[in-house]
Amino acid sequence: MVSTLFHIPSRIGDPETGVPLFGFGLLLVLWAVAAVAATLWIAWRSGWPVAVRSLLLPLSLIGGMIVWVLPALDDGQGIPIRGYGVMLLAAVAAGTWLSIVRGRRMGFDADTLLGLGTQIFLWGLVGARIFYVIEYHEQFFGRGRPLAESLVAVANVAAGGLVVFGSLPTAAAAAWWFARRRGLDLLQLADCIAPGLLVGLALGRVGCFLNGCCFGGECELPWAVTFPPESPPWFDQVQRGLLPNLPPAAVGRSLPVHPAQLYAAIDAGLLAWLAVCFTPLARRDGQVFALVLTIHPISRILIEMIRVDEPPALGTPFSISQLISLVLLGAAAVLWVVTFRRTPRVSFDTDSLTG
């Protein structure tokens, strides 16, 4: 577990009188230059309406974070760079890259996939965070906690706290609206980006491991891991009476647990590889995504049996993620029926899609 990698100083030079980096500082100037350059580039390639539709929302959100959110995250040493946040950015970059590579072979240009990726990432992030905040609302809106402090904690996504399934409704709605506005085939788009989404999920789960969240139950396997004091698994074991309720220094590290986060990362990586290999075998648009939508919920149900961080939900013996997985399996069955009613497509070149 490496929750904080390092800190970025809030000022360049002297800590008191140096040039401010966040808020109305140097980073905002760099953002403005990058925003103008990106807007001009897309406008030159696709026209001003496309540039405005693609960039207005994400650029506004980024600008707002620079001005208001980042200064609020300063912990006295600067802005902490979290392992979770770094892996989240790596996930976006890797998933977008793979989608662009696949898109070139499937008739989608890079600008289209960058625009789609931005929309899916931002709205998926919103949905995943909202779901987490609702599920663990007591962590953010406890008694006596000022509202401003609670809102800053909600916005501090880099510190961890996302529910993958929470991103599905918002990300799916964003993808549908994007495809509708561009006149694109939604199922073909889904096939294109499905492996990239899984690669992003795999890297994101590594971020969960660095953050200590999404942990598994106690075990004595050779690859079991322990977490430091005051980490999520440590607190969980103290609350369940597995560790003494003493000062952290006196208790030491947690009991060995399943590295459930790494299990999930390996699972997502293997499923991404399978989706890439299945692409030239799929006879109809949507079947690559349907395969992912079938297998991922099954593996998630199994991994949830190892995790202990989510209690049973809605009066059932299943966690909320397992219940959602069952719903997704139903959706996968419907999607398979829809795809088999579509006209078979012309086969893509196998080497171009897998290499």
What does this protein structure show overall?
By secondary structure, the chain is mainly alpha-helical. It has a domain at 18-78. 64% of the residues lie in helices and 4% in strands. The protein has 14 helices and 4 strands. The chain has a two-stranded antiparallel sheet with strand order 1-4. A two-stranded antiparallel sheet has the order 2-3. A hairpin with a 6-residue loop joins strand 2 and strand 3. Helix 3 (83-106) packs antiparallel against helix 4, helix 3 (83-106) packs antiparallel against helix 8 and helix 8 packs parallel to helix 12. The longest helix has 26 residues, at 110-135. The chain is globular. It starts with a strand and ends with a helix.
For the largest beta-sheet, the strand count, sense and barrel status come to:
2 strands, antiparallel
Number of strands: 4
Give the number of helices.
14
Radius of gyration: 22 Å
Placed side by side, the strands forming the largest sheet appear as 1-4
Assign a percent range to the helix content.
55-70%
Strand content: under 5%
- Element-by-element helix/strand order: EEEHHEHHHHHHHHHHHH
> Segments where pLDDT lies below 50 for 5+ residues?
349-355
Mean pLDDT: 88
> Helices and strands: which structural class?
mainly alpha
Distance between the termini: 34 Å
Q: How would you sum up the global shape?
A: globular
